[in-house]
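Sample pair:
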Amino acid sequence: MINLRRQYLNIKGEIDKAIDSVLNSTQYIKGPIVTEFESNLANYLNIEHVISCANGTDALQIALMSLDLNEGDEVIVPSFTYVATAEVIALLNLKPVMVDVDISTFNIAVDSIKEAITENTKVIIPVHLFGQCCDMEQIMELAKSNNIWVIEDNAQAIGSVYQDSEGKKYNTGTIGDIGCTSFFPSKNLGCYGDGGAIFCKDSDLARRIRMITNHGQSKKYHHDIVGCNSRLDSIQAAILNVKLNYLDEYNEARSNAAEYYNEQLSDIKFLKNPTESTYSTHVYHQYTLQVLNGKRDQLIDYLTKCQFPSAIYYPIPLYQQKAYFKQGLQHKNSDYLCKSVLSIPIYPEITKKYQDEIILKLSKFEI
């Protein structure tokens, strides 16, 4: 699904030099390279504050911890996404309220959010799934009118750009009150281990978030609030600092590969290509098709026998997971997508030759 070795070899000299500099410094935790990376990422995103942490799940949890929520407060999330988004809500004794998604973009449906808002709703977490932004203008209007916080889950869409109705452009993750991302190796901006980051505009909130990531400390041995231990190590920061310079190039390559898929797969009647929204660029963390003939699983078996990888993101909606099961709940779009989506390989270094081989096998699948 992704060729991390090829990507590493393309920038091996820069990466090895960056790692070597950290090894020579012996400043493995909270070294100056971490501060440098945070500053560079803040400049890239055009946002005031970036606070790095240990992983994307921690980023979401810390963002929620920073808002002084009370047990039982409700947090709205899409039911078609990875479990981490709901997991952190439950861990903090908050109530995850799962809502349906748009059938075309796979992102959280604004109408579903409207129906789910109650007096106990304190946070909305829109997930920018597979590489494009949710309808943030409408979400922010809803949130402001109901005094609700917005935390963007930007783990799959870093580098994507949102444009509002007045033509103003924003980087995903910088529109809500807080943005979160993951640097898991397969992400568009991925490190060689685990890592994450939190973004915000408000200085007081940023200070609180930074304290939470470091045991709630205002200064060493002064623990003003309950925190946790969640830090991006210096080696990963050094790697990310190099790869950040290539992020736009990587995203453009992904977009070009997606465009080629779109052209070549458009005549295969049992497949539906991804839908690109009018208000967001798409950085194609995943290239996700819909299999329209009800034979998605047979298609996976066929591709596996042909020795081509594919993946299902995601096979079970969150509200049907045992840990989060909601009796009587039904989300028509999420249920359908879980039974029909199929992701095929896409990454910056993918070749048209390899894409052609995948396209040929898809075209020869017998319905």
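The longest strand covers residues 49-53.
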